[in-house]
Structures are given as structure tokens and as C-alpha cells.
Specification:
The protein has 10 helices and 23 strands. The protein is of the alpha+beta class. It is globular.
Length: 474
């Protein structure tokens, strides 16, 4: 009789287990909780059956477990049942989809979110909001469609229904952005990172391009681009640097939470070349000056392209397409299609569109009556009325209009008259440190530049792989 009652109790437990599993499926939970309950409940019922009085097939009726042991078993079983029920209320990790990747060439915030968030409207909203946060903190020019640096690390989390939960974008260790979905909407913020700077010295020989030389000395391409920017008014590293030239640089290394996170300011640099001679730079009052206090920055860049290769000079020439002699009002720079074109000076765009034989064309008005013009562009990124800063990317080299191949037709006008761009840029009057700031400049020069100028050159020239010497904290 007692056995039949226990069996009925066992059947009831199995029915409870089935209901529990059905409820779990409705809530989208894992079946492991139900499986755990099955094992526990069936084990309890089986033991009760085995130890029922009169079940002589297994144990004598007089055999029974001590009360303390039974109490301990009951407590353990109850605890496991309670834990299983509690766990059924927790989301399992299988319900969270987490994608962690790094960006490839040309990927944008919009493409990242669009590739990983099925809902198109949600993807656009997330990309736009996090782009606005990055604009506010670190990059005013970035938007949802701006290409991110290849290798940018990101993590996107979705729930089991492919709905957006949160994302993290790590532009670099000191620029980490988070965005999460909350009941009130999307919330985004920039992660607070403690930054520190230490000054170091790098010495290296030219072994090819500037980037290759810096990399062979154990540093990153970013430092090479910073050096190119420092000397961009005085050195064309494509045509004027030679193997065996030497360079010494005092720079800041940036640390985020005690981890290296890139470079800070280049504080001073000395370049000694066979063609260039000795070129110097020291950072003072937000500008670079040479050892005599002459500002390196000029009103005009040497060229609107990073690579300087002149294919046709200013003056009379035989037109390659029209087959007639006529005056060439500009300078042609040969470059691969898609090469970035930069504004040579601050100014305002007065025209961006199609201009007869010049194809896609941009005109920028500058101070002191100057105007620059850029022709045969593959694409332009500006519009009339837009303010431009020196070095801003305004378009890409192309061959639109009358052109035999990809190149940039660059023209410079002074008070509405064409002038030779190369002559104007070379005769510019230099600016110098103003008298009241001279004492301070001399102090900075002595601290940062003179140690590089007075370095033991013979010992340095024997340094093949680069020699970094830690100096002092900032």
C-alpha cells in the first residue's frame, strides 16, 4: 500500500518536472535546469521506494538509515532544489551573443553596426549616437560614415532575439567608448583613463622610407608620420632623404593606466642629410621653430600632395591632348588615382563642382588675396562656403576632364592673377619668436634641442637598430 502511494508521488513529481520544463521553454531558458530537477527528484523518490518497510527484495524491513543521515540528505536535496529554482530566474550566457573583432580597411561605425545588428533603424541609431560621443571628446570630424583606423577593436552584444544590448569601441587605449541600451533609451560615455607621459630619445639611420626606418628602429608608424609633419615645410622625405641620413628625436610616450598607448608630442628633432643638410625643430608655444627661433610652419604647404612628383611645370608647354602650344597656368603633380589632396593653406571654399576641361574642380580663397585651385579630381569632399584649415583633405587625385592619366593640376593666383606656385611658396617671409618670449625659447631650446645637437655623432653613427634612452617624466 505504501509502495503504491510512493509510486503515485513519483508520477506526480514527473508531471511537475514536465510542467517546469514547458515553462522554461516558454521563457526561453536552458533545459539544464529541468534536467537537474529530474535527477534530484527521481533520486529522492527512488531512495524512498528502496527504504520502504516491506520492500524485502532489496533490504530487510528492519534496515533504516540513522535520523541524522536522513536529515542531512533532506537538507541537501532541498538546497539543490532551491538553487535550481533560483537559477531558473537568471539569464544564461547562451542568451547573450557577443561579437568581438577588429576593424578592416574602410570599415565605419555604420557598417560595423549594420553588419552585426539585424534591425537597420537600431543599427543607424547606435552608430550615430556613439559617433556623436566620439566627436565631442576626441575627433570633431568623425561621423557614422567615417572610415575607422584598421585594427580598431570593438565588441557588440545582442540578446537571444538579436536586439542590441551594448557595444564598446576602442579607438586606442586612451579612447574607449561605451554605449548601452536602457529602458529610457541609449546611454553612451567615454571611459575615464589615467594618462601619463614620459620623454624618450630615439636615434636612427635612414634605411629606405621614413616609415621603414622608424619601424626598423623599434617604433611605430605613427611616430614616423609625426616626424614627417614636423619637417613637412623643409624636407620632402620622398625625394630628399637618402640612405645613411641620421635623425634624433625627443618625444613623449603616452601611458593609459600604466600601459603604453601611443605617442604624445614630438618635443625636438634633428635631421642630418646629404641633400638637406642639418634641419632642426623644437616645440614651443604650440608651434615648431628651428634653433634660430624661426617658425617652421609656412603660410603655404610645399605641395598639396604628400608625394611630390612634378610632371609639368608652370609656363608655356605643348598641350598633350589639344596638341597646341599654350601657357600652363599651374603645376601638374603626378600621383596614383585616389591619392589624398590637401589644402595648402587656411581658407574658404568658393567653388566645388565640374569645370570644363579641369573636370571635378575645387577653388579655395586664402588670406592676402591668394586663391588656390585643384583640378582633375576623382572626388571632392568639400562644398562652397566651407571653412578649410591647412592640410585638410579636400579631395582625391583623379583624371576627370581633359587628362591623359591621373594627376593633380594645381594653380595659385594672387589678386586674380596666376603666379608660379613654386616661386611664391619658396620666397615666403619667415616668422620668428617675438622678443618678449626669446628668454623662454632659449631655455626650452637648451633643455630639449641642444642635447640632440651636441650628441656624440661618432657613437651615434654606430647605432644600427635604434637607441632609446629614457630621460625624465614630463
Amino acid at each position: 500500500m505504501e509502495q503504491r502511494a510512493v509510486r503515485r508521488h513519483l508520477y506526480h513529481i514527473v508531471d511537475v518536472k514536465r510542467e517546469f520544463r514547458f515553462e522554461n521553454r516558454k521563457r526561453g531558458l536552458s533545459g539544464r535546469v529541468g534536467a537537474t530537477l529530474v535527477v534530484i527528484l527521481l533520486t529522492c523518490s527512488a531512495i524512498c521506494l528502496f527504504y520502504l518497510p516491506g520492500n524485502s527484495n532489496h533490504f530487510p524491513s528492519s534496515c533504516s538509515l540513522p535520523a541524522a543521515t536522513m536529515n542531512k540528505f533532506e537538507e541537501s536535496a532541498c538546497k539543490e532544489l532551491t538553487d535550481a529554482a533560483a537559477d531558473s530566474e537568471k539569464p544564461y550566457c547562451e542568451d547573450l551573443q557577443e561579437i568581438t573583432e577588429v576593424t578592416g580597411q574602410g570599415e565605419t561605425l555604420l557598417s560595423l553596426m549594420g553588419d552585426n545588428i539585424p534591425d537597420e533603424a537600431s543599427a543607424q541609431r547606435v552608430a550615430t549616437i556613439i559617433a556623436n560621443e566620439i566627436q565631442r571628446h576626441s575627433d570633431p570630424k568623425l561621423n557614422a560614415r567615417t572610415a575607422l583606423k584598421p585594427g580598431t577593436r570593438y565588441t557588440i552584444s545582442l540578446n537571444k532575439d538579436d536586439q542590441f544590448l551594448k557595444a564598446t569601441i576602442e579607438l586606442d587605449p586612451s579612447n574607449v567608448y561605451h554605449i548601452v541600451s536602457e529602458p529610457t533609451g541609449l546611454r553612451t560615455w567615454k571611459e575615464e583613463v589615467v594618462l601619463d607621459f614620459k620623454t624618450e630619445v630615439l636615434c636612427f639611420k635612414m634605411r629606405g622610407s621614413l616609415a621603414e626606418s622608424v619601424l626598423s628602429a623599434g617604433e611605430g608608424a605613427k611616430l614616423a608620420s609625426e616626424l614627417a609633419a614636423v619637417f613637412r615645410y623643409d624636407i620632402d622625405f620622398q625625394s630628399e632623404s637618402m640612405r645613411g641620413d641620421t635623425c634624433r628625436v625627443l618625444f613623449e610616450r603616452r601611458y593609459a593606466d600604466d600601459k603604453p598607448s601611443g605617442y604624445g608630442q614630438v618635443l625636438a628633432a634633428v635631421y642630418e642629410g646629404k641633400k638637406t643638410g642639418i634641419k632642426t625643430a623644437v616645440w614651443f608655444k604650440d608651434q615648431y621653430y628651428d634653433e634660430k627661433g624661426v617658425e617652421l610652419k609656412k603660410s603655404f604647404l610645399r605641395s598639396p600632395l604628400s608625394v611630390i612628383r612634378i610632371t609639368s611645370h608652370y609656363g608655356n608647354r605643348f598641350h598633350p591632348i589639344l596638341r597646341v602650344w599654350r601657357k600652363h597656368n599651374g603645376v601638374d603633380y603626378g600621383a596614383a588615382a585616389g591619392t589624398p589632396v590637401k589644402s595648402i593653406a587656411n581658407g574658404v571654399v568658393t567653388f566645388a563642382g565640374w569645370q570644363n576641361g579641369y573636370g571635378k574642380y575645387v577653388i579655395i580663397r586664402h588670406n592676402n588675396g591668394y586663391e588656390s585651385r585643384y583640378g582633375h579630381l576623382q572626388k571632392y569632399f568639400v562644398q562652397a562656403g566651407q571653412s578649410i584649415r591647412q592640410g585638410d583633405r579636400i579631395g582625391l587625385v583623379g583624371m576627370t576632364g581633359l587628362a591623359t592619366g591621373p594627376h593633380l593640376d594645381f594653380q595659385l593666383l594672387s589678386h586674380n592673377r596666376h603666379v608660379n606656385p613654386l616661386s611664391v611658396i619658396r620666397i615666403e617671409t619667415p616668422k620668428t619668436v617675438v622678443a618678449p618670449l626669446k628668454p623662454r625659447f632659449l631655455f626650452v631650446k637648451q633643455e630639449c634641442l641642444e642635447p640632440l645637437l651636441n650628441a656624440n655623432r661618432q657613437a651615434f653613427t654606430k647605432t644600427d637598430t635604434g637607441n632609446r634612452l629614457a630621460l625624465n617624466n614630463r
